[in-house]
């Protein structure tokens, strides 16, 4: 299985258009020891010909253009992208679907609750239903495996609610377990990846797959609990936003210290997180602990 990291940043990207935090400022001025990143986006393929996207980021169009494997090869409308697996109804995970609206046949997998938010509450997504069999919407539920081509997916529920734009009335009709999914993905050759871009805590029940998977893509959003509050002068803490910070005695670096997965990668990294700065102490700590920091264009063979 080939795993392409098309975008490694959290929502807002790096730099973020309206952010003048120290890191965004230094990146813009050319004095930052690290790279810009687009918003979180993964593409998977077993044969290098047909591709499955994990979510659809707001940066998807430029991410496709930066990735020759995803360019059309025929003479007319065509795409190697066959399917999209959606793990939440956030703008960061679904907005890119609107960039795939040009009458391209696509299989789109999401939970029944996420599909209701997209298809019943947001008429704009009707752009994907203009001709028969344009989008084929497929329901998936936590703890029930499904196949996309030769890839086998095992979705599981992650702590975290529905997006803030979903009204209270609608939320009361939805199943909270369907709000945010993690994914275990097995290739036919035996390799596997675990995909957890948003995790508020590390569950004991994950231990077995964290030990057995070949590659872990884990929530790298924040270094500290109060990181965003300090930049914005207020607001929610990391945990309240569904993200376990990396540092500290209860952080993900400590919680995942002993897992046996041979390749551990922090993914979905907010522009305020100091692990983006390769001259920082935080970056050194992460690397010393055996972790990689995802970057755009990273290619992983599993
Ligand atoms: Zn910033």
What labels would you give this structure?
9 helices; 7-stranded mixed beta sheet; binds zinc ion; 302 residues; alpha/beta
How would you explain this protein's 3D organization?
The protein is of the alpha/beta class. It is built from nine helices and 14 strands. The strands form two sheets. It has a seven-stranded mixed sheet. A seven-stranded mixed sheet has the order 7-8-9-10-11-12-13. It starts with a strand and ends with a strand. The mean pLDDT is 96. It binds zinc ion. Zinc ion (ZN) is lined by residues 15-16, 19, 21, 23-24, 271-272.
Bound small-molecule species = zinc ion
Mean pLDDT: 96
Radius of gyration: 19 Å
Which residue ranges are poorly predicted, with pLDDT under 50 across at least 5 consecutive positions?
A: none
- Give a short account of the largest sheet: 7 strands, mixed
Name the helicity range: 10-25%
SS class: alpha/beta
Number of strands: 14
Please count the helical segments.
9
Shape: globular
How do the strands line up in the largest sheet? Answer: 6-5-4-3-2-1-14
Instruction: Sketch the topology as an H/E string, one letter per element.
Output: EHEEHEHEHEEEHEEHEHHEHEE
Into which percentage range does the β-strand content fall? 15-25%
Termini Cα gap: 5 Å
Summarize the structure.
With about 300 residues, the protein is an alpha/beta fold. The chain contains 9 helices and 14 strands. The strands form 2 sheets. A 7-stranded mixed beta sheet has the order 6-5-4-3-2-1-14.
């Amino acid at each position: 299985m080939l795993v392409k990291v098309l975008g490694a940043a959290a929502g807002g990207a790096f730099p973020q258009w309206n952010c003048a935090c120290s890191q965004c400022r230094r990146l813009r001025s050319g004095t930052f020891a690290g790279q810009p990143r687009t918003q979180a986006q993964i593409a998977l393929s077993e044969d290098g010909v047909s591709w499955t996207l994990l979510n659809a980021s707001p940066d998807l169009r430029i991410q496709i253009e930066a990735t020759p494997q995803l360019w059309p090869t025929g003479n007319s409308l065509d795409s190697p992208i066959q399917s999209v697996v959606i793990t939440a109804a956030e703008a960061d995970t679904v907005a890119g679907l609107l960039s795939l609206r040009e009458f391209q046949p696509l299989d789109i997998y999401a939970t029944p609750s996420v599909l209701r938010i997209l298809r019943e509450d947001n008429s704009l997504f009707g752009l994907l239903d203009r001709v028969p069999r344009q989008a084929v919407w497929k329901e998936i539920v936590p703890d029930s495996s499904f196949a996309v081509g030769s890839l086998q997916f095992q979705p599981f529920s992650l702590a975290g609610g529905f997006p803030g734009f979903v009204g209270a009335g609608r939320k009361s009709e939805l199943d909270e377990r369907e709000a945010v999914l993690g994914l275990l993905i097995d290739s036919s050759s035996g390799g596997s990846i675990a995909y957890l871009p948003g995790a508020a805590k590390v569950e004991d029940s994950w231990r077995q797959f964290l030990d057995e998977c070949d590659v872990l893509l884990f929530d790298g959003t924040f270094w500290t609990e109060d990181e965003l509050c300090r930049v914005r002068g207020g607001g929610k803490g990391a945990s309240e936003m569904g993200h376990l910070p990396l540092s500290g005695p209860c952080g993900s670096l400590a919680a995942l210290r002993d897992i046996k997965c041979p390749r551990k990668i922090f993914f979905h990294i907010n522009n305020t997180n100091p692990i983006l700065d390769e001259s920082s102490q935080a970056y050194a700590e992460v690397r010393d602990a055996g972790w990689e920091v995802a970057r755009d264009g990273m290619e992983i063979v599993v």
